[in-house]
Amino acid sequence: MSPKSKAGEEECETEALKSDPPIEDSEKDVGALEAKMSLLNGITVIVGSIIGSGIFVSPTGVLKYTGSVNASLLVWVASGIFSMIGAYCYAELGTMIRLSGADYAYIMETFGPFAAFIRLWIECMIVRPCSQAIVALTFSVYVLKPIFPECDPPEDATRLLAACCILLLTFVNCWSVRAATRVQDWFTYAKLLALFIIIAAGIYQLCRGKVEHFTFDGTTSDVTSIALSFYSGLFAYNGWNYLNFIIEELKDPVRNLPRAIAISCTLVTIVYTLTNVAFYTTLSPTEVLGSAAVAVTFAERLFGWFALSIPLFVAASTFGAVNGVLLTSSRLFYAGAANGQLPAMLTMVSVRATPVPAVLAVALLSLLYLTVSDIYALINYVGFATWLSIGAAVLCLPVLRYTQPNLERPIKVNLMFPAVYIVCTVLVVAVPAVASPAETGVGCLMILTAVPVYLLLLEPHTRLRGLANITDGTTRLIQKLTLSVRPKVK
């Protein structure tokens, strides 16, 4: 082969990797987002996103910091109401700024690229992978609990099984979107069935008069502890804003978005409260605090030989939740990369039409967080970062009312609601900093790592020279390794 023809082949290969072939008229809409989701679809997205591992992990954390059963139930209800207020504010933002990316898009519109990048960094580097690590660890605890009925499962075994769970679902999400959605559907059914069984057993216990644990005895008066209890409660409600991430695919968002939010948040608050009531009809506060798997302990007390089914149902629930994080995270990565704030490779899809680079990025970060096996420490990291950034997104609402009063607002929220939400967010974020300064400090450091990254990689005046060559070379390498190309869009 002549040097000229060899060079020509290399040039053709490079060009094929750098760009897609010209799009014919009949193909122009391939890959474009279409509004196909109904109101029911929107409700199932929110309910499926919220109900994950939180309801099976957080009862212990909420009770630990409140001190009594009745106080913990009040925190669960208050967390639901708090989430509803935030979701109501998001309804105005979502119908006003109809872009995928949710709060990232709102902060970009209101405060500019630097603040938006910090939000993007928090979500991509902390919230999504850390949440996935939490759910994977919960999956491991519930799978291993029947094997270690008298003690907590070994930490190394728990971490290894969590890593296997993440790696298996990473393969599924890289292999086929259809397979990933089928996993999500079936494991969502298992999740709802587990909660239905627990609630039904709780109602039966209430009918038998099992109410001796429902008291305020032992309630803490420490404000910092109460604020920390909200971290665990609010963690269980994480996901109420996920519909805003895919609002471009929702039919008639002005009508369906607020309805989906209202129905979903009310339903989840009722289900969570009834599930906690069910736990306390059978288990004492001491038993709940001493259990790493509350639902398993509950089932062992009531169901006899059938108790083995509960950890399997809960494991299925958490397995599906890990899959859900992998399945939905690619949209945020896409929104950030489309704005030039994340590597372009994260927008790419493989020949099997799956977002392989984005899925691998989330999976690798999640595996890194598995080095911390303390679930409640991880919840505090996530809680601090999540509610700080969501509070900033809600702040966009009154700011945009002042700076851009002429924007079309199909839904107009009374400013009392964002004011209440922002004040509560400040309390929830600031007060635990006193009680858990080490964990809050770690959370702040993780957030502040966004500043040098932005200045060195994104800010035109301070960015490192020669980065384009490195990123282009890395992008081509990732494209070759994953057989990925940029998707066609409208």
UniProtKB/TrEMBL annotation:
<protein>
    <recommendedName>
        <fullName>Y+L amino acid transporter 2</fullName>
    </recommendedName>
</protein>
<feature type="transmembrane region" description="Helical">
    <location>
        <begin position="226"/>
        <end position="247"/>
    </location>
</feature>
<feature type="transmembrane region" description="Helical">
    <location>
        <begin position="378"/>
        <end position="403"/>
    </location>
</feature>
<feature type="transmembrane region" description="Helical">
    <location>
        <begin position="160"/>
        <end position="177"/>
    </location>
</feature>
<feature type="transmembrane region" description="Helical">
    <location>
        <begin position="349"/>
        <end position="372"/>
    </location>
</feature>
<dbReference type="InterPro" id="IPR050598">
    <property type="entry name" value="AminoAcid_Transporter"/>
</dbReference>
<keyword id="KW-0813">Transport</keyword>
<keyword id="KW-0812">Transmembrane</keyword>
<dbReference type="InterPro" id="IPR002293">
    <property type="entry name" value="AA/rel_permease1"/>
</dbReference>
<dbReference type="GO" id="GO:0005886">
    <property type="term" value="C:plasma membrane"/>
</dbReference>
<feature type="region of interest" description="Disordered">
    <location>
        <begin position="1"/>
        <end position="26"/>
    </location>
</feature>
<keyword id="KW-1133">Transmembrane helix</keyword>
<keyword id="KW-0472">Membrane</keyword>
<keyword id="KW-1003">Cell membrane</keyword>
<dbReference type="GO" id="GO:0015179">
    <property type="term" value="F:L-amino acid transmembrane transporter activity"/>
</dbReference>
<feature type="transmembrane region" description="Helical">
    <location>
        <begin position="69"/>
        <end position="91"/>
    </location>
</feature>
<feature type="transmembrane region" description="Helical">
    <location>
        <begin position="440"/>
        <end position="458"/>
    </location>
</feature>
<feature type="transmembrane region" description="Helical">
    <location>
        <begin position="303"/>
        <end position="328"/>
    </location>
</feature>
<feature type="transmembrane region" description="Helical">
    <location>
        <begin position="259"/>
        <end position="283"/>
    </location>
</feature>
<dbReference type="Pfam" id="PF13520">
    <property type="entry name" value="AA_permease_2"/>
</dbReference>
<feature type="transmembrane region" description="Helical">
    <location>
        <begin position="39"/>
        <end position="57"/>
    </location>
</feature>
<comment type="similarity">
    <text>Belongs to the amino acid-polyamine-organocation (APC) superfamily. L-type amino acid transporter (LAT) (TC 2.A.3.8) family.</text>
</comment>
<feature type="transmembrane region" description="Helical">
    <location>
        <begin position="415"/>
        <end position="434"/>
    </location>
</feature>
<feature type="transmembrane region" description="Helical">
    <location>
        <begin position="189"/>
        <end position="206"/>
    </location>
</feature>
